[in-house]
């Protein structure tokens, strides 16, 4: 398991102490399900664990959660602007964005295309951005042949290599 950021508290929602969260993770309905535990740093920077008691999904990037022991708007003011973390495990064959950033991208001929600078979310899919100008769709088996965490290499398929031209 790894500690990963899954959201950021952007405001409060309602008078009952719910936190409005901007989601930075996939599977938001699973990550923020009531009963799940999250980590939020307190005023001293010390991480504290909280149990989610309620979830209301506003859209695919914004939701509202309640946390155990906090049921009044005045109790949650200090949480605004804080990042939310959770100990999570990527499902088999899935990857965290921050694991992909910094990996070398290799085409089918073994040529080094550069390093993944960041991941760009677009309506159709996520794109690996290499050197801020080269965009490769992150669609495994179609454009991506393999991702090797140990060697930090992403190998493209033939179609992925064609997309770089």
Estimated structural class: mainly beta
**SSE pattern, N- to C-terminal:** EEHEEEEHEEEEEEH
Cα Rg: 19 Å
Helical fraction equals under 10%
Overall, the morphology is: elongated
Instruction: Quote the CATH topology of the largest domain.
Output: Elongation Factor Tu (Ef-tu), domain 3
- Tell me the domain tally: 2
Rounded average pLDDT: 88
Low-pLDDT stretches:
none
Q: Helical segment tally?
A: 3
Q: Give the class-level CATH name of the largest domain.
A: Mainly Beta
- Biggest sheet strand line-up: 1-2-5-4-3-6
Strand content: over 45%
End-to-end separation: 38 Å
Instruction: Name the CATH superfamily classification of the largest domain.
Output: RimM
Task: Walk me through what this model shows.
- The chain is mostly beta strands and 165 residues long.
- It has helices at 28-31, 97-100, 158-163; strands spanning 2-13, 18-23, 37-41, 47-57, 62-67, 83-88, 104-106, 112-121, 126-130, 134-137, 144-148, 153-156.
- The strands form 2 sheets. Strands 1-2-5-4-3-6 form a 6-stranded antiparallel beta barrel.
- The two termini are 38 Å apart.
- The model has no long low-confidence stretch (mean pLDDT 88).
Structure keywords:
single chain, 165 residues, mainly beta, Elongation Factor Tu (Ef-tu), domain 3, SH3 type barrels, 2 domains, 3 helices, 12 strands, 47% strand
In short:
This protein is mainly beta and 165 residues long. The protein is built from three helices and twelve strands.
Mind sketching the topology for me?
Elements: E1 2-13, E2 18-23, H1 28-31, E3 37-41, E4 47-57, E5 62-67, E6 83-88, H2 97-100, E7 104-106, E8 112-121, E9 126-130, E10 134-137, E11 144-148, E12 153-156, H3 158-163
